[in-house]
Every structure is written in structure tokens, then in C-alpha cells.
Write a structure and sequence with these properties.
Layout: H1 3-29, H2 33-54, H3 62-91, H4 96-118, H5 128-142
Helix pairs in contact: 1-3, 1-4, 2-3, 3-4, 3-5, 4-5
Length: about 140
């Protein structure tokens, strides 16, 4: 493989990573509320069980912790999207503040479109707060 082919492969893989992560976000957002809540509740229960091994806690409100887990999932997945998108833009030759600005704009636009998409999913709705959490995660990933 020559140098040009190697550069093209690296650039392609960086964009494929972005597309796969966006597909994962779409997949999670397309789940009806019952399925989405069952998934996050299962993760929350596992986290609580793990924490209780180290430090037993009393009076755990699973709904509160589940809410925190869900919001952290928003933050973290957009944190990764910001990192991967910035990388793809840089691999495509867009550097400096321009790449950061474009990455943030794109992540914020995707966050808004994701919330609009949820308006059409059973039991789901659009949350301005989620767009803010998503955008903050993306911004910190880009930084």
C-alpha cells in the first residue's frame, strides 16, 4: 500500500467511525420509551449492584440514578462524536478553529435533529435540555 492509499484509508475510516456513531445515536433515539427505559434501567441496576459491593448504600432511588445515567449517556456519546468528527475533519484537511467550529456546529445540528426525530417515536419527545447536554459533551470532546 502506498502513501496516498494509506492516507485515503485513514480518512475513510475516520468518516466511517463518525457515521457508525451517528447510526448508533439514531438507533437509541428510535427506540420506543419502554425499550429505552428498560435498557437504561438495566444498566443503572448493574451500576448500583457494582457500587454496593464497594460501598453499601441505603435508600437508593433507582429513578433518580437512572435519570443521571441517561443524561450522562447523552453527554458521553456526543463527547465521542465531537472527538471523532474533529478527527475526521482534520484528516480531510480542515484544521485550526475552522475544524473545531464545524465539528461543534455539526454536532449541535445533529443533536437538534435527533430530538426532532424523537417527536415521531412512540412515547418519546424532544427535550431542549438534552440538546444542551449533547452540545456540551460535543464541545468538551472537541476541546
Amino acid at each position: 500500500m502506498n502513501e496516498v492509499e494509506s492516507i485515503i484509508m485513514v480518512k475513510s475510516l475516520s468518516w466511517i467511525t463518525v457515521i457508525l456513531l451517528m447510526t448508533l445515536i439514531f438507533y437509541f433515539s428510535h427506540q420506543p420509551v419502554t425499550i429505552s427505559n428498560d435498557l437504561s434501567t438495566g444498566i443503572t441496576e448493574h451500576i448500583i449492584e457494582t457500587v454496593e459491593i464497594i460501598a453499601p448504600i441505603e435508600d437508593v432511588n433507582i429513578d433518580t440514578i437512572n435519570h443521571i445515567v441517561r443524561k450522562n449517556a447523552h453527554f458521553f456519546i456526543y463527547f465521542l462524536l465531537g472527538i471523532f468528527l474533529l478527527n475526521a475533519l482534520k484528516k480531510s484537511g480542515i484544521n485550526g478553529y475552522q475544524s473545531g467550529g464545524l465539528a461543534l456546529f455539526f454536532c449541535m445540528t445533529y443533536a437538534v435533529s435527533d430530538e426532532v426525530h424523537q417527536l415521531f417515536v412512540t412515547g418519546r419527545g424532544a427535550q431542549v435540555g438534552d440538546v444542551l447536554i449533547d452540545s456540551t459533551g460535543a464541545a468538551l470532546g472537541i476541546i
